[in-house]
Every structure is written in structure tokens, then in C-alpha cells.
Amino acid sequence: MNNLGYNFGMNQTVVEHRYTPEEYLELEDNSETKYEFFEGEVFAMAGGTLEHSLIAANLIGELRNALAPRGCSIFTSDLRLKVDATGLRTHPDVTVLCGPPKTDGVFLLNPTLIVEVLSNSTEGYDRGAKFEHYRTIKSLETYLLVSEDAPRVEQYIRLTISDWDYRVTHGSESSLELPALGVTLSLRQIFLGVGFPPVRLRNT
Length: 204
What we know:
Helix content is about 20%, strand content about 25%. The protein has five helices and 14 strands.
């Protein structure tokens, strides 16, 4: 376990070299791999499954349709985000910005909404240490954790600087209300084309 909260598998290697932010950017610019950066360490971000990519693409489409009339911008995981208070540089699966951007070089500083699609390798990190980083972003109003194994979305809504409301929406016929943004999304559309494993019933 490293200080970002990742629990690396046997096939992942952490390089001991301490990187500067400039070296981190150079590494990314010369690689097809996306990396996270924190306190001089870089961590390769694993590629997602087909389901992971499809859910992210569906979310981008639904958010764009709902929020574009309001002048909001929707970004893919190519976006570089910096958490100014902690120094984490990362690539959220989906990012929404409503309002003028604030940047530090190539990094966005003021997202309105962040989405992470959960995977087995990063779920604990996305729920724990990564959210601890994200919640220090004063502009962030909503954080979504989206399952790739079932039609289920967990939502954290900022109430105050330090307090968040937690809601869960599940079921393909359900609607996901985003009160901070004043829009509603269909879970059927978010998970369109995704095949879920059958639910096994326990023997009684």
C-alpha cells in the first residue's frame, strides 16, 4: 500500500525515483499511459474494461445533453486535474465544469462535478483516499461513484465546506437526480449497452 491508497497487484511496479511536477508532465507527454502524481511519486492508471469505458462514454453524452444549454463543459479522462490543496494530479473518468475555468498550466483546478467509474483495482481508493483529496476542492459540488457491475450510482452532494449528503440510486428504471446541477439523468441511458452478470439467488 502506498500513500495514495492504492493496493498494487503483482504486475504493477512503483519506481522509486522522486519526480518533480515538470518531470511528471514530461513522462505523460511521452507516454500513451495516464499517470497520477502525488508527493513526487507517479502511479500508472490501469486501463478500464469495455463496460467501464462504455459507462463513462454514456455519462459524457447524457451530461452533455443535460448541461450544455447551461454553458457547462464535459471532459473525458484526458483532462488533467490538480487538487490544489493536496497537490494530487490525476485524470477523473468524467469531469464537469460550470463556469469559467481556473487553471494551473495544463491542470484544471475548479471542477463542479467529478465521476469515477468503479473497478475492482481502484474502488477502495476512489471511495477513500481519492475522495479525501477531492473533497478539499472548494468548487466541487457533486462526486459520483458509478458501478460497472450493476445499474447503481452513489452520489455525494456538498452541503457545507466539510459536510456531504450521501445518496444511492439503483435499478435500470430509476432516475438520477443531481440537485446541485438541477438536472435528472436516466440510469437506463447511463448503462445502455452494458451487460451485467446474472444475480445469483441464495439457496434457502
